[in-house]
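User: quick one - fold this with adenosine-5'-triphosphate bound?
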Amino acid sequence: MANEATKVTDQQSFFITLIGHCKEYGFIFPSSEIYDGLSAVYDYGQLGAQLKKNIKDEWWKSMTQLHENIVGIDAAIFMHPTVWKASGHVDNFSDPMIDNKDSKKRYRVDHLIEGYADELKQKDEAAADALLALMDELLKNDDYPALKKLIEDHKISCSISKTCNWTDIRQFNLMFSTAFGAVASEKEEDNIVYLRPETAQGIFVNFLNVQKTGRMKIPFGIAQIGKAFRNEIVARQFIFRMREFEQMEMQFFIRPGSQMEWYNYWKETRKKWHESMGIPSEKLRYHNHSKLAHYADAALDIEFEFPFGWKELEGIHSRTDFDLSQHAKFSKKKIQYFDNDLNEEGKPYGNYTPYVVETSVGLDRLFLTILSLAYAEEKWNKEDGSEDSRIVLRIPAKIAPTKLAILPLLKKDGLPEIARELMDECKGSFMCFYEEKDAIGKRYRRMDAIGTPFCVTIDHQTKEDKTVTIRYRDDMKQERIPISEVKKRVLEKIS
Ligand code: ATP
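Assistant: Sure. Structure tokens for the protein plus adenosine-5'-triphosphate:
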């Protein structure tokens, strides 16, 4: 059995291989690569963009189509600067950072200590757990001198300079800002707008618009998918932590006092949804927050076991009435809900500020989750005893970027014409790929490597009896079916 040390190395090398695969097959490229890239920014290529869209569509459907009381919006990235004062982001959206004076490298304090704790765990698990518990306690109390002492006492050093020569701990705001409009203002800050660090605020400021125009009754939700920007200090681990990323958020508006009921509902519902996306239950776990954000009265992460350890995939937060109350205060508008049903239940009519339970999942992190589960290198012995191998992406068929590859065996004898007819029949219903070049085995391997769940080969027999060979990606089994059945068969499997 592999020991801990080799396990870590295997996981690291798996991760490097996965990143290489993403690039080689057109899933993800470093941004502006011809200029050597831009740190922690990535572009999705032809297959990545399609896979990402399919994941988005599944989430959107699960929220807005399958819940009658959830609607979706698409708010702008730029928002009035006061939004971020009201939300607390101007004052609070920061991480404690520490700089190494010799290398000038900046670290997030929790990441620095966690990295050390991971190493310590190999030798003394109890000591590592105690260290992390103490760190949590000190972070909760914003006790920066004690945190610095903790780093020094454990002689935690910089990975570059290897020294323990640290600055004091300071807060660093993660919001990007930019100048807005062409008119120069007397006061420079009048022109500053922020790139939104979360999509949630676009939902809160539209609460009344949506509630009134959609005649929404509490409980109801507003969902949104969109870009968010954070000037992450330690941006690493590929698309796990980026400076520009995408969130899929849903704010669920409820009666005050019912928040724990809905918090538990969404906690369960969201984990089940991840499982429906093919993530095994044992690869997911809940992590309750020990330090609650300024707006929350309960919060947890749904974590996934990434190749680099258990990390947050989605956050579930009970945000109380904090956001709506803050926007009411800063905008001087009344943002409340008139609950007619309370009267029918024999309680007095009431206006109140709704409470909110939020579900917030990182689209890119979910993409990485799905790919890291899908990637496999397989070897087996053929009938003649020789070895064969393949790389396969076992992406669930319903979200695979290409569903069906249509492959005429030869480029002649009327086979491409039949294949084109099948292509025309299917391409309006799902993503198809047509290819007539190279040996059929090579074409199958290429389709395995990009996760295409079905391949159909058109050969001479097709001309005689109108049957084709359909090949299944996962078990590589092949069967002969009538060409007229192909579309139905694929639709059945991807629905
Ligand atoms: P972390 O603790 O990992 O920094 P967070 O608690 O700040 O994450 P939230 O503010 O709860 O994250 O954001 C909701 C979701 O957005 C996260 O669960 C994550 O999936 C995603 N997310 C947050 N920051 C990033 C990022 N820099 N890159 C990619 N996805 C991100």
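One thing worth noting: Residues 1-8 have pLDDT under 50 and may be disordered.
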